[in-house]
């Protein structure tokens, strides 16, 4: 059994919000919160107890609950703000996954950034993050057509979401690369 850490309080909240979502808005909303809960455990595995863990969980919980309560339909630009925030934390998680993969191959992330250059490393992280955003938009479209038409899709929604994803991905990638450069500089 994993030892409990303070960030697990947010994971417990995620678990409680699954049946709450069902009660508030039905099974599709409960499925959304189940997806959020699964992602919360992914952050536990990748970055337990770090600032990225806390930030990821807060953004995931907010994004999921805003969907459950229909806030995206009532508050203009909230969907775009959440897409940008979610993409920023996903970019951080992509960077963590890449760093772990490099470590298993015996390459330090600082060395990889030095070889590629910060811009290329950042563009790679941002591109991977936006690709995940495209998959999310495809899932939204599938949900709209196969599950419930209440899931908002459309040309303007999708393009706006992807633009916000790009903005958040670039911000998250820049922060990740900057953090890696700082870590490599302090290791010298």
If you average the pLDDT, what whole number results?
94
What's the number of extended β-strand segments? Answer: 0
Q: Per DSSP, what share of the residues sits in E-state strands of 2 or more residues? A: under 5%
Indicate the low-confidence ranges by residue numbers.
Answer: none
The general outline is: globular
Order of helices and strands: HHHHHHHH
Key words describing this protein structure:
single chain, 188 residues, mainly alpha, 8 helices, 85% helix, 0% strand, globular
Describe this structure in words.
This protein is mainly α and 188 residues long. The chain has a domain of 112 residues. Helices cover 85% and strands 0% of the residues. The chain is built from eight helices and no strands. α1 packs antiparallel against α2 and α2 runs antiparallel to α3. It is globular.
